[in-house]
Design a protein that fits this description.
Number of helices: 9
Number of strands: 9
Structural class: alpha/beta
CATH class of the largest domain: Alpha Beta
Strand order of the largest sheet: 7-1-8-9
Strand content: 15-25%
CATH topology of the largest domain: Ribulose 1,5 Bisphosphate Carboxylase/Oxygenase
Radius of gyration: 19 Å
CATH architecture of the largest domain: 2-Layer Sandwich
Length: 231
C-alpha cells in the first residue's frame, strides 16, 4: 500500500468518507489543495457495464463550457483545401505523409489527432502507435471528418473525449483547481450528462454506480451524481 505524506493525510482526515453534494466536494477540493502547481480536477465513475462485451463499450465526447484550462496541441492529417481549413482553424500541425513518417520515428507531441476520410488509409499505418494512446482518429467521436475546421475549433474551445477502461470505469479531467467553483460544477455536470447519453442499451442496473472526484494529488471525495444531474 502506497504511503502518503503528512499534507495528504491531514487533508484526508478533514473530509467525510460518505457521499456528499457536488458543491461541497468541489469546495473541499479547492480548500484542501496543498501542492505548488495548478492541479487538474478529475472524475472517476464506476459504471454498471461489462467491459468485455463489445456492445457495452462507453465512448463519447463532451463540450466543456469552460474548457479544461489547458492549451491543447492538435494534429490534422489532411491535404489540399482541407489542410488549408485546418490551418485557418488553428491546428498546430497539418500534413499527411510527412507527419506519418515523423510519428513512426517516435514523435508524439500532440494531444488530439484529426483526419479527413480520404487519408485514413495512410493514417491506418499508425494504428499500433496511436491506438493504445487513444490518439487514433475515430469517426464515432468526430475526429474523422471533412469538416476539419469545425472539429479543430471545438477541440481548441473545450471538446474532450472519454472511454471506459478495462475495469468498467471512466476517468476524466474536467478543469483545474484554479477554476472557480461554478465553472467546475458546470463542467462536471456537462460531462455526466454526456456520459449518461452514452449509456449502452444493454447495460443493466444502476448505470452510474459511484462517482469520485479529486485533484491530481488530492483526496478522493465521493459525490452523488443524481443530485448534480437534477440541477
Amino acid at each position: 500500500m502506497p504511503k502518503h505524506g503528512k499534507k495528504y493525510t491531514k487533508a484526508s482526515e478533514a473530509v467525510s468518507k460518505q457521499a456528499m453534494p457536488a458543491e461541497q466536494a468541489v469546495k473541499s477540493i479547492k480548500d484542501l489543495a496543498y501542492v505548488g502547481f495548478d492541479e487538474s480536477v478529475d472524475a472517476s465513475v464506476n459504471l454498471s457495464i461489462d467491459p468485455t462485451k463489445g456492445d457495452q463499450v462507453v465512448r463519447g465526447s463532451v463540450f466543456l463550457p469552460h474548457g479544461r484550462g489547458e492549451d491543447v496541441k492538435i494534429l490534422v492529417f489532411a491535404k489540399g483545401e482541407y489542410a488549408d481549413q485546418a490551418n485557418e482553424a488553428g491546428a498546430d500541425y497539418v500534413g499527411a505523409d510527412d507527419l506519418v513518417e515523423k510519428i513512426k520515428d517516435g514523435w508524439m507531441d500532440f494531444d488530439y489527432a484529426v483526419a479527413t476520410p480520404d487519408v485514413m488509409g495512410l493514417v491506418g499505418k499508425l494504428a499500433k502507435l496511436l491506438g493504445p494512446r487513444g490518439l487514433l482518429p475515430n469517426k464515432k467521436v468526430g475526429t474523422v471528418t471533412f469538416d476539419v475546421g469545425k472539429i479543430v475549433s471545438e477541440l481548441k474551445k473545450g471538446r474532450a473525449f472519454f472511454k471506459n477502461d478495462k475495469g468498467g470505469a471512466v476517468h476524466f479531467s474536467f478543469g483545474k483547481v484554479s477554476f472557480d467553483k461554478e465553472k467546475l460544477l458546470d463542467n462536471l455536470k456537462a460531462f455526466l450528462k454526456a456520459l449518461v447519453s452514452a449509456k449502452p442499451a444493454s447495460a443493466k442496473g444502476k448505470y452510474l454506480k459511484k462517482l469520485t472526484i479529486s485533484s491530481t494529488m488530492g483526496v478522493g471525495l465521493q459525490v452523488n451524481p443524481e443530485e448534480l444531474l437534477r440541477q
